[in-house]
Every structure is written in structure tokens, then in C-alpha cells.
Design brief:
alpha/beta, 35% helix, six-stranded mixed beta sheet, Rossmann fold
């Protein structure tokens, strides 16, 4: 894997009709913010070869919103990404990255935020950037990292929906 894109799902409805958190769908604002983030990433040439998507309704909806921006990307839905911890996310991304250049993970906090902060620190990102990620990783936010030949991450972008306004 040359690049990893961490994308948090868009804003979701408060409750699902089933009462199950897994079934919460995207709110209309979440779909719009997700689509806009997909466009931003694609415009910058940050397109995945493979998207690993949590099987939850809100992450599936997020992928549906961003997928038009990435017409060549394949998607794989992963039950184990639902509310996954940072290490689980990283292991899944690294395994998938053995055969593709750019992997996107569409998932949930706190795991995505924790992984983004860990990789910013490991990559020697400026303290202000680390602090920004620590202070919040809002819905439809994305963090992008490049990897060197030894697998060490380097910051390649941090994008929050409010930055587009």
C-alpha cells in the first residue's frame, strides 16, 4: 500500500427504526457532506483502488455517496470494521494494501480518529496538525497518509467538511 485514506462516515440519523446502532442510516446532510468529500479527494487525485467499508448502514451509505467520485474503485464490505479499534483498522488496511496502491477505509470513531492521530505522530506531523485531529474527527472527515518502503506513514492531507464551506 502506497497510500491510506481514512474516511469517517457521514452524519447519521439519531436512531434507526430497528433501534440497533448498526442500522442507523445517513442523514441527508451526511450524504451531501460525504459526496462533497469524495469530490474533494478525487479532485486532488486521492482516489482509492480499494475501499474497505464497515458493513453498518451509515458507512454503506457513505460509500454510496462517495463512490461516484471513484468510478474505478472496488469496494469490500467488512463486518469487522464496525466500531473497530485503530489496530484492527490498520491490520485490515495493510493486508488489503498488499495487492493495491491506495486503500480507503470507510469507518467509525473512535477507531479512525485514534489511528489518524497515531499515524500523524509516527509520521512526525506538526504539533498543530496532531492537535487538530485529537480535538475531533467529525463526520465525513478524511485523513490521508503515504507510506515509505519500510511502511512508515507520512501525512498527506487532513480534510474536514467545514473546510469546504
Amino acid at each position: 500500500m502506497d497510500r491510506l485514506i481514512l474516511l469517517r462516515h457521514g452524519e447519521a440519523e439519531r436512531d434507526a427504526p430497528s433501534g440497533d446502532d448498526f442500522d442507523r442510516r445517513l442523514a441527508s446532510r451526511g450524504a451531501a457532506e460525504s459526496a462533497a468529500m469524495g469530490e474533494t479527494l478525487a479532485e486532488l487525485g486521492l482516489s482509492p483502488d480499494l475501499a474497505l467499508v464497515s458493513a453498518a448502514a451509515r458507512t454503506r451509505g457513505t460509500w454510496a455517496a462517495v463512490a461516484p467520485a471513484f468510478p474505478k474503485a472496488l469496494a469490500r464490505f467488512e463486518d469487522s470494521l464496525y466500531l473497530a479499534e485503530a489496530e484492527t483498522i490498520r491490520v485490515l488496511a495493510q493486508a488489503a494494501g498488499a495487492t493495491v496502491g491506495t486503500v480507503m477505509v470507510v469507518g467509525h470513531n473512535p477507531g479512525l480518529q485514534d489511528l489518524a492521530v497515531q499515524m500523524l505522530v509516527q509520521g512526525g506531523a506538526p504539533p498543530a496538525l496532531v492537535a487538530r485531529a485529537q480535538n475531533g474527527f467529525p463526520t465525513a472527515a478524511a485523513a490521508v497518509f503515504l507510506f515509505d518502503h519500510a511502511g512508515r506513514p507520512a501525512y498527506d492531507g487532513l480534510f474536514f467538511p467545514r473546510d469546504r464551506r
